[in-house]
Amino acid sequence: MRLDVLTLFPEVFTNVLEHSMLRIAKEKGLVQYHLFNIRDYADNRRCVDDRPYGGGPGMVMKPEPVFQAVEAVEAEVGMRPKKILLTPQGSRFSQSVAGMLAAEPYLMLICGHYEGFDERIRMGLDVMEISIGDYVLSGGEIPAMVVIDAVVRLIPGVLGDIDSAKNESFFEGLLEHPQYTRPAEFRGMKVPDVLMSGHHQKIKEWQKIHAIKKTAENRPDLVNKP
Ligand code: SAM
């Protein structure tokens, strides 16, 4: 997968992309990251924002630099990416959307800032609008990192053991069952006997029951989903 990020703050990505699974994915040759500063595609004054028509607080990201950045990168690469606009007004990101995006050969994530994007960026660039949740962050960089991490670990070959993704929360609509490791007893809290019994069928049953129980307690909306 080729993964491009268009942002006003490319430097904030470098550390995140150099660690853990995102780094491993790159080292395995399964993903390439490319960072672009939208400001480099602005006019001579490197101006990327302006006051909103109709008044109101803050500044809005101008369309020209974003269009110019997208078009220049597309021309350089010679391929059309699936374009993602990070915005709190987008549809909610989820594990199933991450799975769908993991099958794409080329993603381009566009990060907003200030009061957000001029509406013509959404209208004219054939983008998928993604929100990472019902709250407003200062910029699209952290949302882009969330999307990148969730997507890249689902690219086949990135996780050493593909079953670790299949057993995780949301894969089958439930939260994951509780997990334990050594010691068998910690501060009076014991690991359930069944998990140390070696009886695979009983362990599976226990895990299923406790996945449902945990989901019902913490996320009843998932249990009642059709
Ligand atoms: N004025 C906008 C609104 O009320 O919808 C919010 C703009 S926000 C301060 C600036 C940028 O942060 C957005 O353009 C977007 O790129 C990013 N952002 C903030 N919250 C986000 C979220 N929940 N999901 C995705 N991106 C978000």
How many distinct beta strands? Answer: 9
Give the mean pLDDT.
Answer: 96
Question: Could you tell me how far the N terminus lies from the C terminus, measured between alpha carbons in angstroms?
Answer: 33 Å
* Low-confidence region ranges: none
Percentage of residues assigned to helices: 25-40%
Structural overview:
The protein has 226 residues and is of the alpha/beta class. It has two domains: 2-152, Alpha/beta knot (3-Layer(aba) Sandwich), CATH 3.40.1280.10; 169-223, Trp Operon Repressor, Chain A (Orthogonal Bundle), CATH 1.10.1270.20. It has helices at 11-17, 20-27, 63-77, 95-101, 119-124, 141-152, 162-166, 200-218, 220-223; strands at 2-7, 32-37, 49-50, 60-61, 82-92, 106-110, 127-131, 185-186, 189-190. The protein has a five-stranded parallel beta sheet with strand order 2-1-6-5-7. A two-stranded antiparallel ribbon has the order 3-4. It has a two-stranded antiparallel ribbon with strand order 8-9. The longest helix has 19 residues, at 200-218. The two termini are 33 Å apart. Bound molecules: S-adenosylmethionine. S-adenosylmethionine binds at residues 86-89, 111-113, 115-117, 131-133, 135-140, 143. The site of S-adenosylmethionine has 20 residues, from strand 5.
